[in-house]
Design a protein that fits this description.
Elements lengths: L1 H6 L2 E6 L9 H5 L5 H13 L4 E6 L5 H15 L5 E4 L14 H22 L6 E7 L1 H4 L5 H20 L3 E7 L1 E2 L11 H6 L4 E2 L1 H13 L4 E4 L6 H4 L12 E5 L3 H7 L4 E2 L5 E2 L1 E5 L12 H9 L5 E2 L7 H14 L17 H14 L6 H6 L3 H12 L12 H29 L1
Length: 428
Amino acid sequence: KELLQRHQAKLLLIGTTPLPERRTWPSHLLRKDSAIADRIRTFQMLERLEGDVIYDAVDVCDADRLQQAVDRAQSRWGIELDGILHLAGGYHEAMLRDLSQTDLVASLRPKVTGSWVLHQLLKHRPQALFIAFASINGYFGGTTVGAYAAASGFQEAFTAYQNRHSSLQSYCFSWSMWDDIGISRGYPLVELTRARGFQTITPRQGLLSLQAGLCHSQHQLLIGLEGTNPYLRSSVQGRSQPLQTLSAYIIAPSTLIASLSELEVRDRFGTRSDCNFIAVQALPMGATPGTESIDLDARLSQASISPSPRRTLTEIERQITEIWQEVLDLPKVEVQENFFDLGGHSILMAQVQSKLADQFESAPSMVDLFRYPTIQELASHISQTLNPQTTSQPQPVDLTAIRATRISTQQQQRQLRQQNRSHDQLNS
């Protein structure tokens, strides 16, 4: 719909279910609860939009019939194929050991064989667009969707192959779960899936995510994840790099701007927002209402502005920063950033605690590290411990978080012991 309405595209739709002959459509449309009637109404709605649309019932893995369908469309429109959106997939919930060979092939074939067949249509078209829709199961796996996960994993790898060995503009977007549409319609475990950090995606959100990925040339993306979820955070290496930065031009003394830089603001998802405060002598305003931001950007680019001064780290903050960078394997860490938002967990925190004990006579305990999860807070606590006269009232401890982390630590330790026993048995 977006391609037809906004871009007046020439669109060839390929599906497995054939539409009945057009002359029989009126009789089908009289049946209110008919799936065929719903498909006819949807296609009629697309036909009323700008652009042009053709529907052909062809198996995406049938190279000959697919080429014939493309040839007919190219002959009708007098243009060549410019791009492909590969949305086909076979979804079947079952343990891999319980899948028959037929079921396994049905799950793998649309994405694996289908990707290769569609690739043949474009491989000699330089700069043509190839967009594959996969599932985040390709990265995270799934207990009862192993075949579907393997097929999605293939698509991710195939996209990398296309970008290395062809001139195609190839993308693979892996989605979490659609909001009661497609194969997600009627899914009974939606709340459990959300609890693990996999958010439902509306069509509007999906369209905007697709446009953002293409606009920023992100050839492979996982879409629909809740970044603050502990289950997902353990799989993230390093920090997410923002595609946009927030800046604020302000008329204020440098001392005030320095204090503003220490403010912490989080959005409704719990993600911290960083703002670059820039001192200016005046804020030029446009003469025409509504043009202020345009004039501001244009004039400030030529004005003499100074970036907000960064506060010099204290010696304790510097030492903690070096430890965090080493343990988390990060080139840069800000003093306001949360240890767990940077990918930290209880085992890495134990390493931090050990290194702090080597640096300071009164090293903070594990409880202290949970209580003060930023460098700034932790440095302040250590400073107050070394100088008792400045000690303030301690902050309440989140015992639930500590208890949950202790359980997580015990589970990870059990896993390590099991791995060691397995290693010893193999060696013996």
